[in-house]
Inverse folding.
DNA sequence: TATTGGCACTCTACATCGGTGAGTGCCAGC
DNA sequence: GCTGGCACTCACCGATGTAGAGTGCCAATA
């Protein structure tokens, strides 16, 4: 069992290591913190911490480095819950208030968080599952192609191209639009998909192929909206912290681009909606992201929750970053609810 | 003046250096290429090439490395104009034919090119300047917010949120829609902007604030479409070639994220529409991208030209990459014209 | 005149070696 | 339970030496 003073030592080690990037020795701890005891005593505490797998020595007779488990204890019990500065708060509000639309807002959020934390920022687009269909639009693009646009009541828009194989007159088009909206408008996305089953049967045989292509496109749009999307910024920050990833950035950059893995990890963090959650190093199973921590808080938009967070090396300033993620996610929720 | 054999030596140096990543010596040249002369003769040629600033020796008594100027001669006169393999061609066609819509197509193009060249791929969205307004839609999002959607006849869609400050009834809304389309539909974007001047004067005083907000949003959309957008993929490929950037990826990743610089450079490459153009190392003024080459070809969509290309270290396989960029840009044009 | 073999020279990469310093573990004494 | 002392370990640094790749130059040659 680790004593209170042991935990204080752990806190000191995490703080100093995050700052200096170098293994922390017993002497430097007594120099920088007021423990009122000698290095030898600290060494005894460190031996206990090492037994508990909270810290580790990279090699015999070097200082100690926190393990993932050590960071976990730090995050859960030892990190001071900081709040961001007034200037930072103002910067957040100013920057986000300037956004033009939904897309722009989430991209700005991502950029802002990358700048505040100097890490890679990740913002999840909310699912549209609970959103309602505001309107379905069909537009003639070229002779034999239609564009199908789905507008949700929270402002999100998605589109799909439809190949008709033949011309569609304006009159026929407005018929499709009228019916499709009759079926789907006002319903939630998940309902809309069901409601459109058999859509094509309400049209004369000649129009059925196009009608079923339309209902397929809408189904596809709805399905695509279940798989979430991400806005990512600040990849350049990774080179600053390159050594922390033991020089191998490839899997991290790859994860950022592929997004699938990031999405999965973000979802796993979503349990506790009110707190900023952290997944540290090897806690998430991804071997390529073994040196990375993911931190995320949730925000809500139109009844749907989504995550906003950062990706960085396990050796990061958890206190400051949690405060930033917290502040940004709260303000984002507030903005989307107004 | 450099002799024909001198140029052959330059070609050999570029090819070998690109492959081996190591300065090329006179002996290895005679070993790998059939010059039928001794290393000493090659050394004499190399001395001349060095005088012309086409190659340089990193230090006394090491092999030679091409300079940016050397790469330039190589690209302009010496590179064999390769064509891609049948399998690659099929892969391109298969992958791009599967795209759902405009956005998806350009993103797929970017991914594809990144995979083919193993570099960072950049695809410029075409300007909408010449495109026509297909329709303008206004949608009530919440009580006091409207979403303004601009649909162009080439399938591109953009949106802006409008804060009205008061409720807008459905009747009033359809009035706005009717008029806005009356003014703008069927016109090119640039015309539409002019046509909407004084739009609000056609409404009763009570409706004028909202009307002018709408026309401002449309003007904003048109303006935003003049500043182009990029789809970028394959950033992870940079770590593979990290040493080529003398270990400093920051400015490169930064340029990728900021996009402004990339856009500028792409535009500068646009002069010759039919050929793949290359900007090598310090040729473009950006100090952060001194170790990078940008290669781009143009494609056309709805009368507008835009660029598709790659960003990589100056030490890249120009022949193969030019073939890939060429093939992808041609196929993209073809797909967009059908 | 262009080419070549030979030779001295240069510089990097790599391994070896000893000294220094930071840090540890352990133990006896307070 | 804390502390000072001590022996020990190991990374880091600079100096040193060696091997190898490559060059420039020159005199000889076809």
């Amino acid at each position: 069992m680790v004593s209170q003073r042991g935990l204080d030592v752990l806190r000191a080690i995490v703080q100093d290591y995050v700052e200096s990037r170098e293994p922390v020795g017993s002497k430097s701890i007594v120099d920088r913190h007021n423990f009122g005891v000698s290095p030898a005593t600290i060494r005894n505490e460190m031996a206990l911490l090492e037994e508990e797998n909270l810290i580790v020595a990279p090699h015999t007779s070097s200082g100690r480095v926190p393990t993932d488990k050590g960071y976990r204890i730090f995050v859960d019990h030892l990190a001071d819950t900081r709040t961001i500065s007034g200037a930072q708060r103002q910067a957040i509000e100013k920057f986000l208030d300037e956004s033009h639309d939904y897309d722009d807002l989430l991209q700005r959020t991502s950029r802002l968080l990358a700048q505040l934390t100097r890490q890679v920022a990740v913002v999840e687009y909310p699912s549209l599952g609970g959103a309602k269909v505001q309107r379905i639009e069909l537009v003639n693009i070229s002779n034999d192609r239609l564009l199908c646009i789905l507008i949700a009541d929270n402002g999100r828009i998605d589109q799909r191209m439809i190949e008709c194989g033949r011309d569609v007159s304006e009159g026929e088009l407005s018929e499709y639009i009228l019916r499709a909206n009759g079926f789907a408008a006002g319903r939630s996305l998940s309902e809309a998909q069901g409601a459109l089953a058999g859509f094509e049967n309400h049209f004369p045989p000649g129009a059925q192929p196009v009608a079923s292509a339309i209902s397929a496109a809408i189904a596809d749009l709805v399905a695509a909206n279940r798989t979430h999307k991400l806005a990512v910024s600040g990849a350049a920050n990774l080179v600053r912290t390159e050594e922390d990833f033991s020089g191998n950035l490839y899997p991290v950059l790859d994860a950022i681009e592929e997004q699938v893995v990031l999405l999965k990890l973000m979802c796993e963090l979503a349990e506790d909606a009110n707190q900023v959650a952290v997944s540290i190093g090897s806690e998430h199973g991804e071997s390529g992201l073994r040196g990375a921590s993911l931190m995320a808080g949730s925000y809500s938009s139109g009844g749907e929750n989504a995550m906003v967070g950062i990706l960085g090396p396990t050796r990061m300033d958890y206190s400051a970053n949690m405060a930033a993620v917290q502040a940004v996610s709260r303000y984002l929720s507030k903005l989307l609810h107004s």
Q: What stands out?
A: Residues 23, 25-28, 39-40, 43, 46-47, 57, 60-63 of chain A lie near DNA strand C (CB under 10 Å from a C1'). Residues 176 and 211 of chain A are 7 Å apart (CA to CA).
